[in-house]
Amino acid sequence: MLGQVTKLRSRFLVFLHYALTFLTNCCRLKVVIGPPGSGKTTYCNGMQQFLHATGRKVSVVNLDPANDFLPYECAINMADLITLEAVMEEFKLGPNGGMMYCMEYLEKNIDWLEEKLKSLEDSYFLFDFPGQVELFTHHGSVKNIIERLQKLDYRLVTVHLVDAHYCTDPSKYISALLLSLKTMLQIELPHINVLSKIDIIEYDQLAFNLDFYTEVQDLSYLLDHLDSDPFASKFKELNKALCGLIEDFSLVGFYTLCIEASIFINLFLFLHYLDKNSVMNLVKVIDKANGYVYMGDVNLNG
């Protein structure tokens, strides 16, 4: 009997070893998106430092061809392939048209990105995307790039940042909910919505407590506040239908995050001033979404 137990224990440890090896060897990739000004680059900068401090090897990939200022250590930069300024000048395009061209160009030259990623296979990736929302709501290039990476066995999760300031205006908040929902349906990845800049929100301007905005339940309470706005009251039935649509899908909810851009002077100050609880809670949620297991120095043979 003791021999059978020992044999089963050995088989279980072997299975556990291979299972954890698979989980840790699969490359994890975090797709960071959100409207302009939502804090994507600040998030990548802060998260890179935080994860480095916890022992992870992190590589940030800038896929915004218009982002000239990168506060973080950039492992792969789309500007080495194409820049928005050059596209606008050569093809006489505006910023939005030029950005779409850049994404289509990256899709056609996806081999360039794949080769760059292969040289960093043991990294945890953060992808810093541009803020044009149409790239994630209906344009196909970003979706196709993501699907290609999935076929290469990358484990992806979307982190969608929304400025918490939108909660102070019911109509803007509903717009943010619709944007989040449409992005979730378009991208089709494990998806984490985050209210960023929660530390600077003016709570006295909120119609409800913060839980109402993060849990997204019973949006009918918002309609009364919308009706008090002379402009929004003209669209009462539309607002009611939009709230009903969001509730019918019942997909959107938010986590909160506090990362302050001005504190990234050095690692010590970063860890001192950072709201570590909000960041750590978010990291745990994201790790669960993409199946990341941090092994560290775990010994499976003990």
Automatic annotation (TrEMBL):
Which positions carry the signal peptide feature in this UniProt record?
1-21
Instruction: Indicate the transmembrane segments per the record.
Output: 252-274
Tell me the organism. Answer: Gigaspora rosea
Database matches in Pfam families: ATP_bind_1
Q: What is this protein called?
A: GPN-loop GTPase 2
Cellular component per GO, a single term: cytoplasm
Q: Subunit structure, per the record? A: Binds to RNA polymerase II (RNAPII).
Hydrolase among the record's keywords?
Answer: yes
Protein's UniProt keywords contain GTP-binding = yes
